[in-house]
Structure formats: C-alpha cells, structure tokens
Design a protein that fits this description.
With about 160 residues, the protein is of the alpha/beta class. About 20% of the residues lie in helices and about 35% in strands. The longest helix has 8 residues.
Length: about 160
C-alpha cells in the first residue's frame, strides 16, 4: 500500500490549488493521510480525487473540516501496520517517549503542526511529520511524505521536496 502523507496545507492562504509537484506525487497512491491544518474542506475534495483521504483536525481547522470527516485523533490499521495520527505532537524534546506513552500499540504516529519534517524511530515506533507542501516556514523547501506499507511492515518512509 502506497500512502501519501500531507500536513499543514493552510488553504487558501498558501494552498491555492493542488501544487503540480504534489499532484504528481499523488499519482497512483492508495490512500492520503492529512495530519491537519487543512483550513478549508475543498483541499480534501481535491485530494480525494486522487485517492481516499483520512484526516485529523488541526488547530486552524473549523467545523467545516470536521464535518468533512476530520477527527481529533485517528487510530487505524493499514496493511497490518497500526497507525495513529494527530495534529500536534508537542515539543520535539521527549517526543518519542511521549508518543509511545500516548499510543502504546501504534507502529507509526503521523503528525503535523510544526511544519518541520520529522522521521524518527523510538522504541520501535516511528514518528513521522511530512512538513508542509505549501508553507515551509524556516525549512529550505516545501515537503510531503510517502509511506509504503506491506504485510504489517513499514517497507519505506520518505520525506521529499515538492517545490
């Protein structure tokens, strides 16, 4: 299963429409995970034209994004991989241990909020933030992520530039 991972698209201020590099990266994915701060549900409609979307609500998401289907926290299983997703994982210091305590059964925790790409394994649990494809803040380039999941394993995880 190929999963595109996005967060912090911040439409319409930064996302005026699906950026071409993001659209290319969505080609052929099986699922899109969005870790919040969508800001307008139209972004989710755009993403859903490529693949099914699962989304959590960010601190900038209103009731319209929640009505689209965004929950505060998502816990699911994808290809046998136990996945948790939330928007804000808190400070970088102590993140791995904190996420392990909050989601003790999860193999993978996806999050956003900081706009800072993050891919770290702590006690066998991967914490993954794709950064932002539109609002890079202090990062050199906008980014998104991709996961390949198979038979209960994370076969690959990458964060890559899209601008």
């Amino acid at each position: 299963m190929r999963v595109a991972v996005l967060a912090d698209t911040h439409a319409p201020r930064f996302w005026k429409g699906c950026p071409p590099a993001v659209a290319r990266a969505l080609d052929g994915v099986d699922l899109v995970l969005h870790a919040g701060d969508v800001c307008v549900p139209g972004v989710l409609d755009e993403l859903a034209a490529h693949a099914p979307v699962q989304v959590v609500r960010g601190n900038n998401d209103g009731d319209d994004v929640a009505a689209w289907g965004a929950t505060e926290v998502l816990e699911t299983e994808l290809e046998g991989v136990r996945v948790a997703m939330l928007h804000d994982s808190g400070p970088a210091k102590g993140r791995g241990a904190r996420l392990r305590r909050r989601f003790p059964e999860a193999d993978l925790v996806v999050f956003g909020h900081s706009h800072i790409p993050w891919d770290e394994v702590h006690e066998g649990q991967r914490a993954f933030n794709p950064g932002s494809p539109t609002d890079k803040r202090r990062q050199p380039r906008p980014t998104m992520g991709e996961l390949v999941l198979l038979d209960g394993r994370i076969v690959s995880a990458r964060i890559f530039p899209v601008g």
